[in-house]
Amino acid sequence: MDAKPIVVEQTFNAPVTVVWQAITDKQQMQQWFFETITEFTPEVGFETEFNVPCEGKNYLHMWKVTEVVPQLRLVYQWRYGGYPGDSAVSWELSEEEGITKLTFTHTGHETIQGDDIFSRENGVAGWRYFIQESLKAFLQPKNS
């Protein structure tokens, strides 16, 4: 079991306010992240659950916001209903001259057990896709 966090970094040709909205606004998150997100509020203590279909199964995603520093840092607990394990994701933003750097970290990923879909390799590939492809493409049209 590899306890090393999953870290993905990406820069965006967009101000931090635009990137922050993309990672905290439900309607925007539905466009690049999970279309099944039912609610999201970047406030400590906020909790949400939603199903994500994958490979013929539904995975209940359970999030609880644990830290918010507007336009700088967002952290939430990430669990899956029916599977043991507890992890957390953090989104850290910094801006320099209109370019925003996102450092995403998923810790505790290795504690989630019970299905091959939770492998580290799948986690790395999934986060790279969401951040370096999907989020990047979502933000590009706004700044072309």
From TrEMBL:
A Pfam entry, by short name: AHSA1
Domain of life: Bacteria
InterPro entries: ASHA1/2-like_C (IPR013538), START-like_dom_sf (IPR023393)
Record Gene3D superfamilies: 3.30.530.20
TM ranges: none
SUPFAM superfamilies: Bet v1-like (SSF55961)
Domain Activator of Hsp90 ATPase homologue 1/2-like C-terminal, residue spans: 13-139
Annotated family: Belongs to the AHA1 family.
Protein's name according to its UniProt entry: SRPBCC domain-containing protein
Organism: Thalassomonas viridans
